[in-house]
Structures are given as structure tokens and as C-alpha cells.
Write a structure and sequence with these properties.
This protein is an alpha/beta fold. It is built from seven helices and 13 strands.
Length: about 250
């Protein structure tokens, strides 16, 4: 069987000399390779007109973490802690999501990627959890904590795809975000929650593999349930490739 090709969305950053870079944490790449896929980085500046040709070649999409979505995309409340907004990345990822939903292309959202899924399908976000949910736990364990620091527990609905994949209904996760799901998008199902009831995972019912988590599983790849998550995603993309092969 051919190795599935999975696109990973990227950030735009500057190196020490001030030159712009297209980048993504290597942990995403290694997690997909370990699970049996071939990763392909998708530049944030990619032309929307090129998406049909790109998607024709991809077997799945991983929506990676990164800076915040422009609050204007979801009527969000402005906040001084909003950072890293990239309107080109927002436009590209929301277009990719729309196509992945329409064409049943498998996708996995991680952290920002979870928020992209919710916003793209009509939901909203807290633009800063600590300010807008004063009863919430601390969720922004960055940048001064290890990325694999297990910050809190999540409860996972036992009848969800995620629970079936992980073979768990409860686990400890890391937490590297200051935003989160506020109003759930129509058609999405929230399937995991932090102890403060903040949404920690989403599923798109009826989709071959439409799943998103608010934590960073790529930084927890040593854990067997997390390995199972990436394997399940790659298996779904392999099935997609098999269906598309002549």
C-alpha cells in the first residue's frame, strides 16, 4: 500500500537575521512519520487558487498549532493578549477546512487547529480564557513550561470516536493555549472536557475522520494512547488514498 501524503499547515516566522521562514514544529512531522505517513508542509502564503490541485494530491490534513485566529473571523471580543494573527494563514486554513469537510478528506486539528475547525464551521472562541472565564483553570502553560508538562485531566465521552481510538475515557494532557471554544459550531460534537468544562476535543459526525483536540498530542508522542491517535489518523488517510487510486 502506498504511503499516504498528509499536509501540515505552517506558521510564518522570522529567523535571527530577520528573514521570513515557513515553519512548523518538527514534532508534528515526526509524529506523522512514526505513524506511517509522508508529511508535506503547506505554506501559509499558498494561493487559494492552487488548493484544488493541492487537495487532489493530499490524503489528509493536519491543522497545526500556532498564533491566534483573527477575532474578526468570529466576531470575537478584542483582547491585548491576542497574538500572532496571520490573515493569510486564516484564509488558507479556513478554505482547506471547507474543502476537507465537503470532500470527506480526513483531518486532524491540534490546538489552534481545533479552534480553526470550530470557527470554520460557525462557532466562536474565547479570545482570552483567563479574562473571559475567570472560573477556568490555567490553560496557558507556555512558554516557560516543558511542552510535555501534564497540566490537567480531560474527560472523554465514552461513545466518541476519540475514546475508541485512545481506549480511554480519562487522561492527563498538556495545555498550551490562552483561547478556546466558546460557542460550539453547528454540526460539531464536543467529546472531551477539562475539569472547568472547557471543550478539549471536537468531532464532525458522519465524516471519515474529522477530529480535533485542544491539547498538543505531538508533544506527548511517547504515550501509547497518543501513538494510537496518530495511527488512527494515518489509517484513515490510507483508506482515502486506496479509494482514490485507480
Amino acid at each position: 500500500m502506498a504511503i499516504p501524503l498528509i499536509g501540515i499547515t505552517t506558521s510564518r516566522t522570522l529567523n535571527q537575521a530577520g528573514y521570513p521562514l515557513i515553519s512548523v514544529a518538527e514534532a508534528y512531522v515526526q509524529a506523522l512519520i512514526q505513524a506511517g505517513a509522508a508529511p508535506l508542509l503547506i505554506p501559509a502564503s499558498n494561493s487559494i487558487q492552487a488548493l484544488p490541485e493541492l487537495l487532489h494530491r493530499l490524503d489528509g490534513i493536519l491543522f497545526s498549532g500556532g498564533g491566534d485566529i483573527d477575532p474578526a473571523r468570529f466576531g470575537g471580543e478584542p483582547h491585548p493578549k491576542v497574538y500572532g494573527v496571520d490573515v493569510d494563514r486564516d484564509r488558507l486554513e479556513l478554505a482547506l477546512l471547507a474543502e476537507a469537510v465537503a470532500t470527506k478528506l480526513p483531518f486532524l486539528g491540534i490546538c489552534r487547529g481545533c479552534q480553526v475547525v470550530n470557527v470554520g464551521l460557525g462557532g466562536t472562541l474565547y479570545t482570552d480564557i483567563a479574562s473571559q472565564r475567570p472560573d477556568a483553570l490555567k490553560h496557558d502553560y507556555f512558554p516557560d513550561w516543558p511542552r510535555d508538562y501534564l497540566a490537567h485531566n480531560v474527560q472523554i465521552d465514552q461513545d466518541s470516536r476519540l475514546a475508541h481510538i485512545l481506549d480511554l475515557t480519562e487522561m492527563q494532557v498538556n495545555s498550551l493555549h490562552h483561547q478556546g471554544v466558546s460557542r460550539l459550531a453547528p454540526g460539531l460534537r464536543a467529546v472531551a472536557y477539562a475539569p472547568d468544562r472547557l471543550v478539549e476535543a471536537l468531532e464532525l459526525p458522519g465524516h471519515p475522520f474529522g477530529l480535533a483536540v485542544q491539547w498538543h498530542p505531538e508533544a506527548l508522542i511517547a504515550l501509547a494512547p497518543i501513538q494510537a491517535l496518530f495511527r488512527a489518523f494515518v489509517e484513515a488517510t490510507s483508506k482515502n488514498r486506496a479509494l482514490s487510486d485507480p
